[in-house]
Amino acid sequence: MARLSHLLAFAATAIAREITFPPVSGMQEPLGATGRMNLGMDLSEPLYSGLMTFGSLPYVHCLAAADTTVEPYDIAIVGAPFDTGVTARPGARYGPNGIRQGSTRMHAQFSWSVYTGRNYFQEWAKVVDCGDAPLTVLDNTIALKQLTKTHEVISARKGNDSEFTVPRIITLGGDHTTTLPALRSTFTHFGPVSVIHFDSHIDTWNPDVLGGGFSHYAGVNHGTFLHIAHEEGLILNSSIHAGIRAPVSNKKYDIHHDKSCGFTIVKARDLDKIGMQGVIDALKERVKGTKVYISVDIDVLDPAFAPATGTAEVGGWTTRELLTILDGLSGMEVVGADVVEVAPIYDNPGETTVLAAAEVVHSLIGLMVEKPVKGKAT
Predict the structure, then answer these.
(1) Is residue 13, in this structure, part of any structural domain at all?
(2) pLDDT digits (tens, 9 = 90+) for 103-143
(3) For residue 32, is it within any domain?
(4) 355 phi/psi in degrees, rounded to 5
(5) Residue 122, number of CB atoms within 10 A of its CB
(6) In-domain check, residue 10
(7) Which of 130, 272, 282, 374 would staple 62 via disulfide (CB 3.0–4.6 Å)?
(8) Would residue 34 count as lying in a domain?
(9) What backbone torsions phi and psi does residue 72 show, to the nearest 5 degrees?
(10) Which domain holds residue 269?
(11) What is the mean pLDDT of the chain?
(12) What local confidence, expressed as pLDDT, does residue 5 receive?
């Protein structure tokens, strides 16, 4: 009798596990649907699983051999796992996948902005993730050549749009040295650019100063790349820093040298005086009439909002302030961009930094989608 009661109890439990949901309204797709009403067991495009790309974007092998057919794209996400040009904490070689991890909740079917009413993943531009550049960790000179070649290959492919045929690249860093190959790439297709440089440091130091003059090798690093870009003629004298607050090594020379590299400065605390709209206006006025490259060092944010970075400086901006300023740059001809210096090992369990970095990338995609740009014939 006891055995029979156990069997009956087990049978009741088994039956109870079959849960029947009421009909779902046809007015809205269920979370996780993939562009069509499908209440069955669709396993083709699940969230939070499979190969991790930024925002669940399609992966394209953009670095395939020359004789391989590669599907066209308009905006390419590419990782630059490089952190051997830092002067402080390493770890940004893991930044690209950290930023992708921060983007796992993003999806093209669930990305309508409550601010603009737009979904930049579903407009004219085909946005893809090309994966990471294959970089050696043993020789900076070779690694930067590899990254330069990566940019050359990805940007040389034909865009998906028939009118705007030069793809634009958003780089996930990686330390800030990785911006130099990106600027060389944009120069090839768009000519010299104005740089809007969000950072707590000026990064225009003379290689003889930040590098010690020991060797040419030592002088190429995350604090000298803008000096080198100016030296190579890649950037215009209409460039600007935003969020600067870190000390300099020489009270007169460094700032004077920064101006000679074509930059003016919006300091972090200027935001308290002129507000976010004042910062937006200053940036727009400075680069007006030029093509723009936007580089975002995540340490422009205060460590309270982005602790996972190599050279954190207190007194920075909040995530909301940075996103508002970026969105305020709508209408610019943004020909390239990056988010760098993300070192996930220093993040907290809530993934504060990588979540912020992913949303910054989303804003950069939006700026590119809002303003298509034609490249020059090469």
Answers:
(1) no
(2) 999 998 889 999 999 999 999 999 999 999 999 999 999 99
(3) no
(4) -65, -45
(5) 14
(6) no
(7) 130
(8) no
(9) -70, 160
(10) 55-370
(11) 90
(12) 61
